[in-house]
Each structure stands twice: as C-alpha cells, then as structure tokens.
C-alpha cells in the first residue's frame, strides 16, 4: 500500500477532490450567510451547462436499478450541485458560472448502467465509481469529456473490449479499470498516452503486450491478473523516464525478463512471475529499486549483485524459482524441464507478440502454476 500511496498521482487526485470539496463547502457557507444568494441562484439554475448536467444525471438515475444506501435519492430537481456525489466548481474559462466538475460515487454500491447522456457532462474533471455494481459497456460518448483527468471505474462489472473512447480524452492522466470484466487486447495507444497511472489488473484482458511501448509517461503500470501470454518486450525501456512500479504478476507472460528493465532507473517496485532464464544484474543495480518480487518464476540463474540483494537493502522475494543456491525453491521435477533447455536471455529477444516462445511457455503447461498467491497490495482497488 505504502508504495502506491507515496506516488504523486493519488496526492494530486486528493488535492483536486479537496479543492472541489472546498469549493462546495464555500458555496454552502456562502449560501447560509445569504451572501451572493442571487449569484448562487443564477449559477445553479440558469446556466446551460448545469441544465445539460441535469439531463445527464436524470438519465443516469433512470438506469440505476439498485441504490441500497440512498445515494441518489436526493437527485431531484435542477440544482444538481446539491446531489450526493456531485461536485460543482467554477468553470475554468468562465469563473462566474458553476459547472459539474466531479462525480464521486465510490463505495456507493449502486447497480445499473452508464447512459450515453454522460457525454453531456463536458466539464467533468473526475469520475470516481470505485466499488459499485455498474455493468454493461462504457458509452462511446465519454469521449466528449475533454477535461476528464481521472477516471476510476474500478471494482464494478463492466464488460466489453477495452473502452477505446478513453484514448481520445486529451487530459486523462489516471486510468483505473481494475477489477472489472473487460476482455480482449489492450490497444497499443494506451501506452502512448500521457497517462500517469494505468491500472488494468484483474480483468479478462488477453493477447500479448504490444511490441512497441513508446511514448509512455506512466509511473505506475499494473496489468496483473490478466491472461496476456507472450513476453515482455525490450521496448519497456521506453518507460525509463517515468516508471516507478511495474506489476506483472499472474499475466501468463513467459520468456526472459528483458535486460532493458535495467534502464528503468526510477523503478522502485517490480513484480512478475512465470518468467525464466536469468535475473539480469542491470535490474538489481537500479538506483531506486526497493522491492523486487520475483517469486513463482522459473529463474535458474542470478547475475552479480542479484545474488545478494540484502547487501543493497532491497526487499525481495525470490521463492519458488529454480535458483540452485537459494532456499524455498521449486522442486527438481518442476525445474528440470527449464534446466534442460536453458534460455540465453541475451540472444533470445522478445519481439513482442508471441515472442521467442510463440506465446507458449518454454516447458509443459503442467509445470506452469495456474495462479500465484503473491498479490501485491497495490493491485487492490483503492479508495481514491
Ligand atoms: C433508503 O430509503 C428507504 C426508503 O426511504 C429506507 O427504507 C431505507 O432504510 C434507506 N436506506 C438507508 C441505508 O438509509
Ligand atoms: C458533447 O458535448 C457538447 C457540448 O460541448 C454537447 O452539445 C453534445 O450533445 C455532447 N455530445 C454527446 C454525445 O453527449
Ligand atoms: C490470475 O489471473 C486470472 C485471469 O487471467 C484470474 O482468473 C485468477 O484468479 C488470477 N489468480 C490469482 C491468484 O489472482
Ligand atoms: C551478502 O552481503 C552481505 C553484506 O555485503 C554479507 O555480509 C553477506 O555475507 C552476503 N551474503 C551472501 C550469501 O553472500
Ligand atoms: C514488495 O512488493 C510486493 C509486490 O508488490 C509486495 O507483495 C510486498 O509486500 C512488498 N514488500 C515490501 C517489504 O514492501
């Protein structure tokens, strides 16, 4: 948990939320003191952007079929800024008018759909729907939300392919789709966007990691618990300027950990499994590395300082590999196929896609663990 919370993104998110809360608070206080009441009346009822928000939120309420905590019971009437979970603030380019800038329905336990009318909420900077029971697909109309900065849809029941509409959101910085039922491939464009955080773990995404990961600015990439297969392409080095956490556990990735991971000089947390070959020294000498979890792989060799991470003060988990000198390794039976067909990680390069093993494990599927109990805490949905 700590590692993720130390990241700048949630802080920024919190700050924005705080600002939103403050602006709401200020308005309530202002209203209570009768101060700027006329202005407030004007701004709450008569601007076209709030009217569009009213249409959108009423349309949404109509497709919310369960609301056990009565979050939406006050979603009545045109004063949308008073609705539970709806946050208004001054419009960016027109400070005199109020607009709906945030939706925070985290842990509301709502069940229903997202209607096309959400595309009318063009002033939204934040959507937080963590831990609800929303289902169906993400409407294409959200591509209309040109100010959207944070989109948290985690821990719902959304289905369908990766919601490509998010790729056209110019301001999007934080994308959290974890714990849903999205399926199919991740589009390469996802890794080309100027995102700070990409959480797509615990879905049904499949296919391989795109071969060319270029132009990414993400500091946190969590794709764990999906069924990708293939290998990790050397172009992961294109994340060098930004990447701090890379969690690949239980993604059916096989092959080598590319030595290019050694270029990710900001990397603090690295966790992956089912890879084989050697643990490259370049990774173990990374200056910021503080936690290197590589349990449940098939590593049979460690280079240089990797053999003694304690000496660098790095927290590590090397259990359940095939490392001859280390305790708590896999059994001989599990390791033999790997040891009999050693991989030269400097020769065999992941070309992306199916990679060197054509997407299949280098050993019989029987020896590949179906799952791993090692779940890093930052995989769990947050309460941002
Ligand atoms: C929600 O409202 C219904 C009907 O007014 C009421 O029976 C129920 O107790 C309320 N639930 C909560 C959690 O407040
Ligand atoms: C997109 O936003 C504009 C206002 O900027 C609005 O007129 C239009 O109806 C919206 N489109 C959709 C599909 O919601
Ligand atoms: C591993 O990922 C699959 C999806 O590919 C999921 O069904 C399974 O529950 C995950 N295992 C664990 C231990 O989380
Ligand atoms: C690891 O390094 C530390 C300090 O540099 C040393 O005390 C320890 O003996 C080394 N352990 C092994 C297994 O080489
Ligand atoms: C290191 O990271 C792994 C995976 O994220 C996590 O499970 C583990 O608790 C972390 N260890 C420490 C000491 O922070």
Automatic annotation (TrEMBL):
Keyword Metal-binding appears in the UniProt entry: no
Pfam family, one: LRRNT_2
Residues in the signal sequence: 1-31
Organism of provenance: Hevea brasiliensis (Para rubber tree)
Domain Leucine-rich repeat-containing N-terminal plant-type: 56-89
Keywords: Cell wall, Cell wall biogenesis/degradation, Glycoprotein, Hydroxylation, Leucine-rich repeat, Repeat, Secreted, Signal
Coarse class of the protein's main subcellular location: secreted
Domain of life: Eukaryota
Alphabetized PANTHER family for the sequence: EXTENSIN-LIKE PROTEIN, LEUCINE-RICH REPEAT EXTENSIN-LIKE PROTEIN 3-RELATED
UniProt cross-references to InterPro entries, sorted A to Z: Leu-rich_rpt (IPR001611), LRR_dom_sf (IPR032675), LRR_extensin-like_regulator (IPR051582), LRR_N_plant-typ (IPR013210)
GO biological process: cell wall organization
Full protein name: Cell wall hydroxyproline-rich glycoprotein
Subcellular location: Secreted, Cell wall
SUPFAM superfamilies named in the record: L domain-like
Keyword Cell wall biogenesis/degradation: yes
